[in-house]
Structures are given as structure tokens and as C-alpha cells.
UniProtKB/TrEMBL annotation:
It comes from the Bacteria. Residues 22-176 form the D-alanyl-D-alanine carboxypeptidase-like core domain. This is M15 family metallopeptidase. Pfam families: VanY.
Length: 227
């Protein structure tokens, strides 16, 4: 049984450092190691953009977006005019691409964003985590196709494979199914509410007002995608 601090990205005692700066649960690290070697054997690069992200890092991203210091995109990756949005509109706009601090799957050590580092470098382009990088003609297309075929063999799946009214599609985001299931089963609305109450987070009032809906739409996966 994990603690509330571990579930909400405020304690890393259940994680190991798989690569410098990348912390994962031990079982996840073993599975990822096997998947990376299999991809390399097939001539495909598989590297981590990001893995564990603590609550304070997610909080910094959230507050910067709320204050207009970082761009906020709509479902079509177009920049939104945040100054013209209500607090409720800002809340749901940010949630489309950025998890609520305390509720990110990146807090668990079970999830990671993947890319093909060598192909990106060879392309000479500035890399961004957007769907175009994983589509045909994108530097991560071969990796995306390989993962379509083999990720499940190593216990991984895409939690945001398609848009269903919550988080935007993220072809780069993979989750270790068995490990993530245990985390999701233990995270509760009460646990998340307590975390938000403790944070110096922008928009706290409107977040708490809509937290049950946020939890349902952006934290719990649709039934067909639950790990």
C-alpha cells in the first residue's frame, strides 16, 4: 500500500533511478529495459523524454500556464487567448494537455514519454511533443509503428490513445499496465483534494469546485482503456 505522498508525486522512496534523471518503479524499469533492447535490435531508437515528474514540477508548469507565462493549446494544438477566458475555461483548457498537480500519471513512476532521439537529431528540427512528430514523415514515426505492434508484449499501453473528452491524444505517452493499475486503484478523490488544499496552486477555488468532474474526466481512464 502506497502513501498519499507517493501517489501524488511528493515522495520518491518507491522509485529507482533507471537512467540519470529518470526515476521509475523497479518492475517498470525492468520492462522498459527489455522493450528498449528489443526496439534497438529491430533498428528502432527508443528513448525517454520524461518519466517521473514530481508534484512541484507539475505545479510550476500549471501555475505558469494559468498566469499566461506558458502557452496553452486547444485540442488542435492552437494557442488559446488565455486573457479572454473565464477561470473555468482556463481550467479545462490547461487540463487538455497538462495534468493537475497531484493527479499526473507521471507522479507514479509507471509512465513515460518516449521518442527516437537519434532520428530527431538527424532530422535537424526542433522537437516538440506533438502528434505530428509521430505521424508519417515525422522523426518518431518508425518508433510509433513499432510501439503499435510490440508495446503490449512488454506490458505497456497508451493511456491517451484517443480523445474522449478529457486529455488530448498523446502517442508518445506509455504506461506500464500492471504497475499503473495499482496506483490508480489507490488514488482517490479525497487524496487528491487533500493534495490540492496543501498546494500553492493558481485557480485553487475553481479547481476544488470542479474537482469531482476533473477526477472523472481527466484522472480516471475510460472503461475500455483502464489498465
Amino acid at each position: 500500500m502506497l502513501t498519499a505522498l507517493q501517489l501524488t508525486g511528493r515522495d520518491t522512496s518507491h522509485l529507482i533511478e533507471w537512467r540519470p534523471g529518470h526515476w521509475l518503479q523497479p518492475d517498470v524499469a525492468k520492462a522498459l529495459e527489455k522493450m528498449q533492447k528489443a526496439a534497438q535490435a529491430d533498428g528502432v531508437g527508443l528513448d525517454i523524454v520524461s518519466s517521473y515528474r514530481d508534484c512541484q514540477r507539475q505545479l510550476a508548469i500549471w501555475n505558469a500556464k494559468w498566469l499566461g507565462q506558458r502557452p496553452v493549446l486547444d485540442i488542435n494544438s492552437q494557442v488559446l487567448p488565455m486573457e479572454s477566458l473565464s477561470d473555468k475555461q482556463k481550467l479545462y483548457a490547461i487540463l487538455t494537455w497538462s495534468a493537475l498537480p497531484g493527479a499526473s500519471r507521471h507522479h507514479w513512476g509507471t509512465d513515460m514519454d518516449l521518442y527516437d532521439k537519434a532520428s530527431v537529431q538527424q532530422s535537424g528540427r526542433t522537437f516538440q511533443l506533438v502528434s505530428q512528430e509521430y505521424a508519417a514523415e515525422g522523426p518518431c514515426y518508425a518508433l510509433c509503428c513499432w510501439l503499435d505492434s510490440y508495446a503490449e508484449d512488454f506490458g505497456f499501453f497508451r493511456p491517451y490513445a484517443k480523445y474522449q473528452g478529457g486529455v488530448a491524444p498523446e502517442p508518445w505517452h506509455f504506461s506500464h499496465k500492471a504497475s499503473a493499475r495499482l496506483m490508480q486503484q489507490q488514488l482517490s478523490l479525497t487524496c487528491l483534494s487533500d493534495c490540492i488544499q496543501a498546494l500553492n496552486i493558481e485557480g485553487k477555488r475553481v479547481i476544488l469546485e470542479h474537482l469531482p468532474d476533473i477526477y472523472r474526466r481527466f484522472v480516471q481512464l475510460p472503461d475500455e482503456e483502464k489498465p
